[in-house]
Design brief:
Elements lengths: L10 H15 L3 H11 L10 H16 L2
Length: about 70
Amino acid sequence: MTVNNGGNLSIEYFISYLKLVMEARSYSLEEAKTFMFINFFKKNNDTYGKESHIKFMQAIERIKEGN
């Protein structure tokens, strides 16, 4: 998925992205989270801004809750 460096990304965006990684790589949620931290965020939580990272973490919680 292509992302511009500036925008705040939505919770729904991250849910979709995490589910895609989980499905395509047969990863658990924790493995997908690590994969995205390394490959998407480039090992820096603020790569796409603090708000995007907060929404990433909220997306993880929603997936854990089954939503």
